[in-house]
Amino acid sequence: MKEIFIIGGSSSSLFLTSLITYYKLDYKVTIIEKNKVLGRKLLATGNGRCNLLNKKINEFSFNNEETKSLITKEDIDFELDFFINKLGIELTNINELVYPYSFSAKSFTNFLLNYISSNKNIRFLTETIFLDYRKNNNNQYEIITSKGNYFSDYIIFASGGKSYPSLGSDGSIFNILKKHNYKITPIFPGLSPIKLKESTKEIENERIKCEVSLFNNKDELIYKENGEIIFKKDGVSGICIMNISSLILRNKLINPYIKINFLNNISLNEFINIFNIYLKNNKNNNNFLLSFYSERLAIYLYKNINKSFNNNININNIDKIYNLLTNYKFNYLSNYDFLSSQVSVGGISYSNLSINDLSSKIDKNIYFVGEILDSDGMCGGYNLMISFFTSLKVVKALSNYNKK
Fold it and tell me: Where is pLDDT greater, at 201 or 402?
């Protein structure tokens, strides 16, 4: 029986071994994981609710054409069928987003762990650090770890990228792979809050639902999204902001900026009507923004808007006020670091791999799955889709070898 060593106990690793178990592939499988338990990052996905996949795929869903080519509508149908009808995990939808029926990443992860633990050909080497590998004279690989050396016919790298280092993905794997001549595209912290050039300390922790638009330094619109944003002492966060943070890196934007529509879904005429009603009952026009915002946010916006025309809010400038509130500009400074990012942008270049099965062009019988690849997605289940479908590609290849 051939041996497979999987480096990393990531979500990809759990998907891999679940597929291997279901299809009863005749391999001995060993998972090496530096943490005490497997799937720690999976436990944190979807704010603990485990957004498994997204049925809606558009031009922004994934970072490159190689990743987009890995996932088709038929693949999505397969994943749904696999979890529901093959493993017996009930799923549910919120619009296009698919979750376990339990809305619990912990329950989903425990289900997969229990399932693969039933396979006597799978073992776990936890609290074990992968150090390197080398090929021996028997065309096997010697796996070098902090707890001794092992031998294997296949290696599958499922160790994640560099984001969430507290959960095990610290990026150290890339230094090892560079020594084996793998090309690594530059690694950046994706899906993170962003730091702004303007001060936001006065409105730290303020939340508001709005429309956020990303522009390049030529004033061209790159992307826009509605959602809730949360101000930090030096920037802003929220799902739409995290998506924008990855797009800035993907597109290598220089001096981009964002515009926030603080009056989302309110037209100019509606705004004027509200102002006229306010005037009938209030003498202090400067408090008008309290009709829409918390006191701290109203004061912040009024103070900064007032710099543009240096007079009080009145009916003669209400259209200017409206324009400023619907196109409020913040200048991008940087992404937050890897400690605050959900995924890594960059990774193992697809030039190193066969896209058909994600096998290495450098070393025979070595494969790569999940976030270690130069593949990343937006928020909303796309990154777990990458983990599942790259794992499926490899399992299909192993299945074919298994039949020989």
Answer: 201
